TrEMBL record:
InterPro entries: Pyr_Knase (IPR001697), Pyrv/PenolPyrv_kinase-like_dom (IPR015813), Pyrv_kinase-like_dom_sf (IPR040442), Pyrv_Knase-like_insert_dom_sf (IPR011037), Pyrv_Knase_AS (IPR018209), Pyrv_Knase_brl (IPR015793), Pyrv_Knase_C (IPR015795), Pyrv_Knase_C_sf (IPR036918). The lineage of its organism: Eukaryota, Viridiplantae, Chlorophyta, core chlorophytes, Trebouxiophyceae. Its EC number is 2.7.1.40. GO terms for molecular function: ATP binding; kinase activity; magnesium ion binding; potassium ion binding; pyruvate kinase activity. Residues 562-675 form the Pyruvate kinase C-terminal domain. It comes from the Eukaryota. It comes from Coccomyxa viridis. This is Pyruvate kinase. Residues 416-438, 450-530 are annotated as: Disordered.
Length: 722
């Protein structure tokens, strides 16, 4: 079998009558998660409550459009909805970043959401001028653009795409332009199709014939002034769990973002890299290795990737993330539900196939932001996910993960200097991580366009690319965005964080043991969630010495955490357990359990910790619990701070899990926990009434009590919240 072949999803049950039988209602939550974009259609408390009850687990605020005050109100409403439903919801902030926009006049509606004036028509073959002239007004022949240096990026023969925000490429507001001439600030183009331009219009500087690289706007600064201001403000005033990094082009972008967050009290905020163009696909491994999660922005990607490659690119990207244990999210699921209460057949099939491909979460855009059916959208997508999850072959996924991890480790042993990373190698054998390399040395001259783009960097430092569509939201006095100097390959050198040792209650044995011994990877330096066996190739390209890279490799090939995580999944399957419980401190162990996709929920138990922050003390844990809400199979549970321990805590967790329908009385439960600082695997059983831990499992109880006696936990009652 060649690497290009897909694994088959052959349904064991081909009996159509039984497939068509209505589902008996299951209270077990879907494995996959649904993220919704907040906007005019879904920011009131009532709708948010309904969406949370329908299963939305994370909400995105997109800085591309709308004022800071508008988004703050959306988040305040979300907090209220969360209190009402007693459900957690992760909060994601999406940057404007390298997004280019057409400036158009707008008014504010009664809630403060910007609404554009009437749209206009553009006819096939007509001349259209895209201009950086700040005084120009949008019309059918002139499109003023938000980025001052746009004209420098273009050359005759380029293709530009102008499309409606969150609906790229698929509606009547999609316009393709061919660049004919550049005259000062003006890019003179010819329209390649008829289009009705309406709403907020984003621009993509698309493929330049011949060089195979597209979306050259990736050489713009990573964050706009507005982004920087908004991120700092939101971190101060809200609990932000993730930043979506728009147009991430390499792992270096993620490091840069990490540094910005660390410098601005955002140490707990995790980074989701948005993969939106060819360059990001070429640099996929460095991006996925550096980020905490990845979004495949399928709308924007659809403009760069040929239709015939789309499905395979999606599968490959998802599989790569799966192998890294990195959460992967896709966009553009049920666009038609922005207008209709029922999705199309193609959309329903697409969602289900993504579940079978192994995706973690689905991110809604226009459907919830400005669609007519936000609640039905969440319900529909989750219903499709549930059905597809029933058909998902958990066992073969597990086997694949094990086999590939072993294979990769072997490959690395054979050739640690060979760069395997990227599944879309550019022609001519160029370094896949061209942008990362560009920090250290100039972009290869062979990339004619890229060389030109690099020369732009110095001018961008003073360039205006400050705000969505125009500069209305930029506070006066904010410094301009400067391309950052390369971050000092600053990757905290930590190992698993667990002491090595054998589990007193469960030993990793059987066929998986062999795999565990060879497993690469839980000692990732950058992402806090998971591991990257091949991070070393990225590190090497960032200037790390061969010896350091080699030592990272050796270290990463022996991971007890991954061994325990995979064994927990195997044990749950072998014992027909109903639930896996995983205590979570950083989330690394839980994400590795999720990597192996057990056929049972993974309850991630977060016991908040009091940590010192300078002179102040801060209770940490809530954000981590919410961060699990974009990850497949994970159900976070937050224990009350400093309360509960040992089998008292576990009993209450089990009782809550039974009430929630996660596990049934008498079922076995596999637990991943620490005992005297050592990570161990344990098995317990729910009692007959479903009120807690079956008491005769002495070994487990005593292990847990030992931890309790160490004094880091107490025996009080706990308040648990999902
Ligand atoms: N038996 C237990 N009783 C109470 N707390 C526990 C127990 N086992 C683990 N924990 C806590 O849960 C967290 C798990 O952290 P760790 O095992 O390092 O996982 P991660 O991979 O998420 O960092 C730690 O804070 C640990 O103190
Ligand atoms: C960029 C996004 O998605 P897409 O490219 O799929 O429209 C998004 O929703 O932020």
């Amino acid at each position: 079998m060649t690497e290009r072949q897909a694994k088959t999803h052959f349904l064991e049950n081909t009996d159509l009558s039984s497939i068509l039988e209505p589902e008996t209602s299951s209270s077990r939550p879907a494995e996959c998660k649904v993220i919704a974009t907040l906007g005019p259609s879904c920011r009131d408390v009532e709708t948010l409550v309904a969406m949370m009850e329908a299963g939305m687990t994370a909400a995105r605020v997109d800085l591309t459009w709308g004022s800071l005050e508008y988004h703050k109100q959306s988040l305040r409403n979300l907090q209220q909805a969360s209190q009402q439903t007693k459900r957690m919801c992760a909060v994601i902030l999406d940057t404007v970043g390298r997004e280019l926009m057409i400036r158009r006049d707008f008014t504010l509606d009664h809630e403060g959401w910007p609404v554009h004036m009437e749209g206009f028509d553009i006819k096939d073959k007509q001349q259209v001028t895209v201009t950086t002239d700040a005084k120009a007004e949008a019309s059918s022949s002139v499109l003023p653009i938000s980025y001052q240096h746009f004209a420098h990026m273009c050359q005759p023969g380029d293709t530009l795409f102008v499309g409606r925000y969150l609906v790229n490429g698929a509606d009547q507001s999609s316009l393709y332009l061919e660049v004919k001439d550049i005259k000062g600030d003006d890019v003179i183009c010819t329209a390649l199709n008829d289009a009705h331009m309406d709403g907020l219009l984003t621009v993509i500087h698309s493929e330049r014939e011949g060089d195979g690289m597209s979306s050259l706007q990736t050489d713009l600064p990573l964050l706009t002034d507005y982004d920087e201001q908004a991120i700092k403000t939101f971190i101060k005033e809200f609990e932000i769990d993730y930043i979506n990094l728009t147009y991430t082009s390499s792992g270096m972008d993620v490091y840069e973002m990490r540094e910005f967050l660390d410098d601005n009290n955002g140490e707990n905020v995790k980074i989701i890299a948005k993969v939106e163009n060819l360059e990001a696909l070429h640099n996929f491994d460095s991006i996925a290795g550096a980020a905490d999660a990845v979004i495949l922005s399928r709308g924007n990607l659809g403009l760069d990737v040929a239709p015939e490659k789309t499905a395979v690119v999606q599968k490959a990207a998802i599989n790569r993330c799966n192998l890294l244990g990195r959460p992967v999210i896709i966009t553009r699921l049920v666009d038609s539900m922005a207008e209709a209460p029922r999705c199309t057949r193609a959309e329903a099939t697409d969602v289900a196939n993504a579940v079978l491909d192994g995706v973690d979460a689905m991110m809604m855009g226009a459907e919830t932001l400005r669609g007519k059916y936000p609640v039905e959208t969440v319900r529909t997508v989750l219903a499709i996910c549930r059905q597809a999850e029933l058909a998902f072959d958990h066992e073969s996924h597990f086997d694949r993960m094990m086999a590939r991890a072993m294979q990769e480790d072997e490959d690395m042993m054979l050739d640690s200097s060979h760069h395997h990373g990227d599944f879309l190698s550019p022609p001519g054998g160029q370094s896949p991580d061209s942008r990362a390399a560009a920090y250290a040395r100039p972009v290869p001259e062979t990339l004619e366009g890229a060389a030109k783009a690099v020369s732009l960097k110095s001018t961008e430092a003073s360039g205006s690319h400050g705000s969505p569509a125009d500069n209305h939201y930029v506070q006066p006095g904010l410094p301009p965005v400067h391309p950052r100097t390369p971050p000092s390959a600053r990757r905290p050198g930590s190992s698993d964080g667990h002491t090595e040792g054998t589990s007193p209650s469960f030993s990793a044995s059987g066929p998986s043991q062999m795999g565990h011994a060879r497993f690469s990877g839980s000692s990732n330096r950058v992402s806090s969630f998971g591991s990257l066996p091949r991070a070393m190739s990225t590190a090497a390209s960032l200037g790390e010495t061969a010896a350091a890279a080699e030592s990272r490799r050796t270290e990463s090939s022996m991971s007890k955490v991954e061994s325990i995580a995979s064994t927990a999944v195997r044990a749950a399957a072998k014992m027909d357990a109903g639930l896996i419980i995983c205590y979570a401190g950083t989330g690394r162990t839980a994400s590795l359990v999720a990597k192996y996709r057990p056929n049972v929920p993974i309850l991630t138990l977060v016991v908040p910790q009091l940590r010192s922050k300078g002179l102040a003390w801060e209770l940490e844990g809530r954000s981590l619990a919410r961060q699990f809400l974009i990850m497949r199979g994970l159900i976070p549970m937050l224990a009350a701070p400093m309360q509960g321990a040992g089998d008292s805590l576990l009993s209450q967790v089990l009782s809550a899990a039974v009430k929630r329908g996660l596990v049934e009385p008498k079922q076995h439960v596999v637990c991943v926990l620490s005992v005297r600082g050592d990570l161990v695997l344990n098995v317990c059983q729910v009692d007959e009434k479903g009120s807690g831990l079956k008491s005769n499992l002495a070994s487990l109880g005593s292990e847990l009590n030992l931890t309790a006696q160490q004094g880091n936990v107490s025996q009080h009652e706990v308040a648990l919240s999902f």
